[in-house]
């Protein structure tokens, strides 16, 4: 212990500074009335609390004597100053109190009236404030010493002023003098390693946002230019209003082993597996973020809780008992091996989990580390695999083919139900047996030779094999293939065998029908010719000869490559490149949707064909090619594809939804007469309160008008904006269309620019008029302001005056396909009928009016689809 410091003049000034603290207004206070010699005439206030005496005991006492021998001299000097003419003086002194601790009292002495020879002395007890200031100075001194002693850098950052005050061991840790350290946050960030700076800034912003403590690790540049890992631990101080005004923290160098600890902590906190640390009593010591996210708890909520809080309530008691048993002999192992375990989230929901236990020991005692993984997705995957296996088993067991798997020694691993049915052997009993134990030796030897060939070559092979049946041997076409492990190693043979006995018999029976079939083949329109295994044409029907430009007799004996196939790279195709020859080799029918055949004169034409293998006594002897000239079909499909493409492009170009414009209900729709449409409408926004409505009609319908419509739309979209002039836009568009449009084609177009703010619009019509229907149903015709586009280059266009609109008014843009709709009695739908219907439903939404208008035209025509493109755009002012 060290002796208390003796008061000095400096100490007195410090103490009086405390007396001036506004917080001292709450201190005890007394008032003394004395004569000019300091003798107390009367006293008031809490004298016993401040001086240990009552007012009566103080009467006639000398004020300087109350202060004790050390302070009485100072008090007498202050009295002399008052008597010499000073109006007031102050003094801070220590006053001894009988039966108690000395008090620190701040005195204010004044001589209000020299004629009365009386002094007024006010005393205020500031002992508690002085003690608080003294302890604070001692604490700061100790903190500074502790920082230097333990290698800590102490800092305080005033957030509003952005001023940093440094203390502690900054020279030993970083090598900087105090005057070399930055005084603001920006300067400190410059000392942080560039790779760590962004994370440090972001962490500081997060701490400021949620008013939490900061714990950061980053690299800082020393005075010698080297980098050192620093641990930054800080907390914030808020004022009475809750504003963060100050950060107080420490910086310390992270040793190499602590860097490893930081890395370990980073691994644990960032791993995608839940991790728990539990003490011997079953209390949770630690949980990583992934586990907290999985169970819906925060780390603070879990810390100190019993581990059973993470289990369903029905399992907690049993888990507690099992935990006690395991802790008697703890060993690393998975928990609940073979069972489905469940966890319980904070919200009460349950989910399957995998848990592994690993007991360990720390300096604080035994600890169990648990890894917890959510099995929900894995169980779903396992169930999917089981379901897939079940489906595969169903497929295997319900196919007419015989399917089986064998190992390399020929032992059966699996066989489907058809194998069991055909050979009348329980497939469970035959697992592990070989063909020599199940079939006659000569058949088993043939099966084994084929299996060994597949195993040696590692390739798929096709065999004709004979197997015993109750009605005699059957011939099977067996497709055999190697079974491989994931590393490519062959571990067995798989086979799919199809009974082809009936097919072979049918081919024999069909042989005698060959002549009759030739007569039939020559009477059909598709071309047919036969090819042997060498690629030589054996027969051809009349249709084949006609399409290829040969006589039927001339074709027989010719190489079918040279006769029918187009050359491949200026040479005759090899057999291996020909799909017809492949059929002859492999005996599998092939359908070819499109290929080029060559006529005798060398010209090519497209065909679709089917090449079917021909078998004789079970052997492939060639194939039959059935082909058809598809030139016309291709032309038709190309035309249809062009129309479908144009339609798809158009549908993408039309507005997909009605636009939003303040105070205006806008809708539009088009109904094409063909796949591609020559009508066009668009909504082009030119400002938050302004929009241009466009409706055009290219003469005719189909692909050509559709392409012209796309060109017009692209130009309008590119040129119309808030500053554009419709007259210039239409003039330039006309010039482009004159160059690109066929002579017989033209485009009518109307553009209407709506200003929602001024509740008005203007329009320009190139051979296309519009209508304004007032709220009372009255119609104002808006005639065309120029001629149609695309006919002549000499073009004159004007823009209408601005029309004011009110609530309930409708702006109507319609293509001529609507009014030209014709009934079965050859009566036109007409514009009057259309306007009457709009007038009747003018109070409905624009989209509904358009739909009713279109349905009415279809009912009038008694047809579902229009014969001409119909397009309508309506803007209803609200």
From TrEMBL:
Q: Which residues form the PAS domain?
A: 166-211, 259-329, 388-458, 513-591
Tell me the Gene Ontology biological-process terms attached to this UniProt entry: regulation of DNA-templated transcription
The PPM-type phosphatase domain covers which part of the protein? 685-877
Q: List the PROSITE patterns hit by this protein, alphabetically.
A: PAC (PS50113), PAS (PS50112), PPM_2 (PS51746)
Top-rank taxon of the source lineage equals Bacteria
The protein's Enzyme Commission number: 3.1.3.3
Q: The PAC domain covers which part of the protein?
A: 214-266, 461-512, 590-642
An example molecular function term from Gene Ontology annotations: phosphatase activity
Alphabetically list the UniProt keywords.
Answer: Hydrolase
Q: Signal sequence: where?
A: none
| SMART domains the record matches | PAC (SM00086), PAS (SM00091), PP2C_SIG (SM00331)
This protein is called Phosphoserine phosphatase RsbU
